[in-house]
Amino acid sequence: MHVSEEHKTGSGRLYFGEGRNWRSFCQHNVLHSNSQIRRAHCWFPCIDSATQRCPFDLEFTVSTDLVAVSNGDLLYQVLSKEDPPRKTYVYKLSTPVSAQWISLVVGPFEVLPDKNGISVSHMCLSSTLSKLDNTISFFHDAYSCYEDYLAAS
């Protein structure tokens, strides 16, 4: 697996999905970050202190057959014109948090939007797609029950 970091005008960019063995690695695995206990600075440029909180604008560039999932709202995706083509996922986290709470997961995920029209997407690896589809069929009902119980609706 090859991970490179590029610094442009003070922002960090990580590229995932290059190299000969990447496709065979990703058939059964995912790449994820571990930012706890001052490790966030190991994978993205930041002030890695629990007392320093700030909002984040995050961009992750991956191979077109992969999905990058992170904190915040997914604003948009950009498909590059490079050879091989890549996809950039752009997230915005408006709530100030310390860097240790930023996470990233990259893998060949299947994405299923929620069937009840709420702004939730469900993701899993291809081998567990039928299990996910069965699980999310009652997700909205369970979530509504918790909202009623907690008087949060």
Automatic annotation (TrEMBL):
Gene3D superfamilies in the record: tricorn interacting facor f3 domain (2.60.40.1730)
GO BP annotations, alphabetical order: transcription initiation at RNA polymerase II promoter
GO cellular component: transcription factor TFIID complex
Molecular function terms, GO-annotated: chromatin binding; RNA polymerase II general transcription initiation factor activity; transcription cis-regulatory region binding
InterPro entries: Aminopeptidase_N-like_N_sf, TAF2
Transmembrane segment boundaries: none
Protein name from the UniProt record: Uncharacterized protein
